[in-house]
Structures
1.
Amino acid sequence: MSDDHTPLTGVLGRLGELTGRPGRLPEVLDVADLSYRTGIPVGTVAELLGGATAPEVELAERVRQRLDFIREHRRRPDGKRYSLGELAAIAGTSRQWLGEWRKSGMPGLEHTDRLRRFFGLPPGFFTASESEALYEALQPVLQGLEARADPLSRLRESGLVRLAARAPHMNPRQLTTLADLADMLITSETSVS
């Protein structure tokens, strides 16, 4: 097992606890969405969620796979695929160079960053290993499940519960400030949900 798989193993274990489906996460998580967000094929995402390790892929091959994934899965506003010429224009290069990148898998950082930003992809989209990419994509899922399992966890982590416990010893100005802070947190949490 590679070192980059270890953090993913921990997250998968915690997700298994929170969902009550250890080892059966593909049944409860949106595998297609995770694939779309990471650039990892659906089958590989499902295998990783099931506890398997992804085969080692050379960096150039990984970049090439992710470039092809973008071309296959990201669509123009009219629903059609982006042409190589359009992708080259987005990347700030020529169609010929993009063709070479697809062969070699090694575009320049500036060009991949342009593609990444245009498509709203996470940092490291082109270079992260499958385990690293899935680990990052699962973080919001984990946070959401943990918040539902223990709604006060974020308040405890922020220290707000400790502050509330000190309320009997606060003066009116401090109490007003604490109430405003709690109101702000509650309002922002409701607008995000």
2.
Amino acid sequence: MNASTSGGETGSTSGEESDGVTSEDTSDRTSDGSRDAPEKRAIRWVAVQAAVLTAAVHLLWAWPRLSDPGDVRPYVFLLGGAFTVAVAVATLRAPEYRRLYALGAGTLAAFLLGYVGWHGAATAGALGSDPLAIVAVGAEIVGVAAFVALYRLAPPTSVVLERRTEGEKP
């Protein structure tokens, strides 16, 4: 009865029960997987590598074309590449925030949809004739899938913030 009234907290770290309350409850962290669970860590690395590869390809494409003032794409690609790298770094260093993962998926999806929007009906032909585009589109598809998987595996942001404040208490 105590376990059901205390929110399911059934044991303490020493193995003894004290009114159903634990000195340190980690049951919610192990049931949904911590940030460093092996599957989350692997998916996070895939997402980060796909984001960095996408940024690198866009920077490689944009750098030699910066002197052309009539085309805005190189400048957009520089900004987008820098932003993508920032999202990748935050994905590695920050706690698991669903909003961050949604931002990563959205950024890579924007690159992907922008390519299709720019080339329109000739997308398949343009993609087949440009090796950088093939690499970028492949990395973007993998990155979107990885960021969506991270989003689905991550707890809601309120839970992450609650865990963070619990860790700050003396």
3.
Amino acid sequence: MGTYLAYDYPLLSAFWTMLWFFLWILWFILLFRIIGDIFRDDTLSGWGKAGWLVFVIILPFLGVLVYVIARGKSMGHREITHARKRQQEFDAYVRETAGGGRSSADELARLSELRTRGDLTEEEFLRAKEMVLSGSGTGPSGSTGTGPSAGTGAAPRA
């Protein structure tokens, strides 16, 4: 009866078409998420993955329904775990790229150690310390660019 009404009223026909179109898109999104979850799951063996994949592809409606009923809850946990892992990797990458891992205190401690060993003169130490404190001397590797032979023309001491 509902489909006959759709032919009598063009707006209802357009709504009916949009509803079916939306359901097909929803179906494919669910199908691809399940296939992705099958491959992402580390607890399944290769044969288990192959079995679920064949079941989902050969009998798609029944396969997806059974998969969601049987493994739907753990599917959400795997998605959250995967998202957290990706976020941690991204945070580590940003920390490594942005900061180089060294703070000003680390740089000052390193400069002080170089001065006490005699690798830096007092003048070079003060110049490097000023650069570290002003924030302009640290490069991507965390070095200040001042060392025994960095721009002073002096040869390293033995």
